[in-house]
Amino acid sequence: MTLESPTTFKNPMPLNNPMTLSELTSLSGLDVFDYLDQAMSIPVIDGLQAQGDLIVVPHERLEAVMTTSWSHTVDVPLSGVELLRSAAGGNPHTLLADGGECRWSSRVHDSRGLALGILDTQVVAYLIHPEHGATGIAPGRYVIGRQRERGVGGMFGSSQLVAD
Questions:
Q1: Domain boundaries, given as residue ranges, for the chain
Q2: Residue 162: predicted pLDDT
Q3: Which of 2, 59, 78, 96 is the most buried (most CB within 10 A)?
Q4: What is the rounded CA–CA span in Å between residue 104 and residue 163?
């Protein structure tokens, strides 16, 4: 029996292939709650999608959201970039992908004040949360931000951030 050298080891399941929640958590080292079906295939969506208090919107629908000179851009690693921690300070929403082919820009300009950043990816990226599981984001450019909901009261009502 021969062992492969660590320098020749290749990831057996590239993130660009369809995968299950179990495979994604094994590759990333991130956990989800036991009640989630680990054998479930993760959907990959190229349009609008939501996960708890976050919403992913194709950039062409929010072209006024843009990077600026004060934006901070990083490669998204397999270990993930935490985008938002739940309202009570608990569970994080984490973005992950193959490093170098997926970039996250935070501190973007958004007159609505809802955008957390802009995702530019050439591969499938994943948004994972311990309670919600994971969703796949198809290659493209997206704005990821907080969701807002209408409250009750008054003729026009009020709005508030969705608390997860």
A1: 21-150
A2: 52
A3: 96
A4: 23
